[in-house]
Amino acid sequence: MGEKVALPSLSLPKQRTHWSVFVVIAAGVLFLLMCGALYMVVKGQRDAEAAFAKRQADQAALVKAQTEKAKAEAERAAAEAKRKQAEAAATTAAAAAAKKESATSAGASTESTRRRASRRSSGSKSSKSSSATSAPRVAAPAPTPSKPPQSKASKDIDELLRGFK
Fold first, then answer.
1. N or C, which end of the chain has less CB nearby within 10 Å?
2. Contact 137/110 with Cβ under 8 angstroms?
3. Residue 46 phi/psi, 5° resolution?
4. What is the DSSP letter of 14?
């Protein structure tokens, strides 16, 4: 065991690398370059798809927000219209009640007038026919509120303003 073993040398003098080894190395480098280019193209496509999806999501969110805003506005308008309609109905009901009240008081006075007329005539033919043919009175519309009386100062101001026209 004390003897040394001499290993053969792998590099031989005057021996060159075969041309096919250069071809294989060149093919490997070309393959790595093509893989890198393919990776860059695929990554660019993914980024483009992600950006497109983000734009679509932003657009959908914008449309949804506009739709909700329009819906809320429509609900507000409907509530406002309903409120105005209720106010108009209340005003109409109040006017009808006032008209009915005035008609009732006017009807009561005309009926009492008829009773008095029939008692006075007590059998004359002409008065009976005239009371029977008279049409019942129609209640007059409620009077509009009149303007409050103007003071001398407000009249003077009104005249002054008319002078500017």
1. N
2. yes
3. -60, -40
4. T
Per-residue pLDDT of the chain (165 residues; tens, 9 = 90+): 678 888 776 666 677 888 999 999 999 999 999 999 999 999 999 999 999 999 999 999 999 999 999 999 999 999 999 999 999 999 998 888 888 887 777 665 666 666 666 666 555 454 444 444 555 555 555 656 566 667 888 888 888 888 886
Q: What does the domain layout of the chain look like in residue ranges?
A: 48-89
- Residues constituting the chain: 165
Look up tokens 């209340």; give the residue.
90
Name the DSSP letter for residue 10: S
| Secondary structure (3-state) at 139 | coil
Six token digits for residue 16:
């060159």
